[in-house]
Amino acid sequence: MGLPGSGKSFFAAQLAVKLKAYYINSDQERKKLLAIRTYTEKEKAFVYDALLEKMKVFIKEDKNLVLDATFYKHEIRQQFTDEAKGKTSLFFIEVKASEAIVRERLKKIRPDSDADIEVYKKIKKQWEPLEEKHLMVRSRNDNIKEMLTKALIHLQLKK
Q1: Secondary structure string (H, E, C) spanning the chain
Q2: What pLDDT does residue 94 have?
Q3: Torsions phi, psi of 96, nearest 5?
Q4: Given this model, what pLDDT does residue 159 score?
Q5: 8-158 fold
Q6: Given the DSSP bridges, would you call strands 22-25 and 93-96 parallel, antiparallel or unpaired?
Q7: pLDDT of res. 157
Q8: Which pLDDT tens digit goes with each residue over 55-76?
Q9: For residue 26, what is the DSSP state?
């Protein structure tokens, strides 16, 4: 989880490889589901509902999954937590980056994400911090190995 430009998608994709897990990206799913994207609350709920349905299948099939999405609101996270409860382990890993790095990243064209600095600012205002204990990693442009090591240690300790 994390704000646009935080590096969460790069991190999540790499983490999925390390875990030999399936990887689902909310931006890619949104593009598959919607030809025209408006990013309304209704549309966001639709995309998160689709992610939740996919997660249910992975739980039923007992397959590891890395879900890559902003997860910016408590209510959204709670739906996923409730679904996993008693069935599987669920971990939130928050990826953060300095605003300077975020601005630099959001200037570049990213194939899956439509987010720009205005989207970042909007979601930052709506952000509801995760109050439960979770791993938070800081993303820079040169520390993916460090981030992955922290995540792998965290996940191993929590099994």
Answers
A1: CCCCCCCHHHHHHHHHHHHCCEEEEHHHHHHHHCCCCCCCHHHHHHHHHHHHHHHHHHHHCCCCEEEECCCCCHHHHHHHHHHHCCCCCCCCEEEECCHHHHHHHHHCCCCCCCCCHHHHHHHHHHCCCCCCCCEEEECCCCCHHHHHHHHHHHHHHHC
A2: 98
A3: -125, 155
A4: 47
A5: Rossmann fold (3.40.50)
A6: unpaired
A7: 64
A8: 999 999 999 999 999 999 999 9
A9: H
Paired with 67 in beta bridges are 24
Q: How far is CA 147 from the centre of its chain?
A: 14
The answer for residues whose C-beta is within 8 angstroms of residue 54's C-beta and 6 or more apart is 24, 29, 65
Q: Please say whether the beta carbons of 119 and 27 come within 8 A.
A: no
Domain boundaries, the chain: 8-158
| Residue 72: both structure tokens together | 């910016």
Residues in the chain: 159
Taking the C-alpha atoms of residue 75 and residue 82, their distance in angstroms, rounded to an integer, is 10
Q: Give the 3-state secondary structure of residue 28.
A: helix
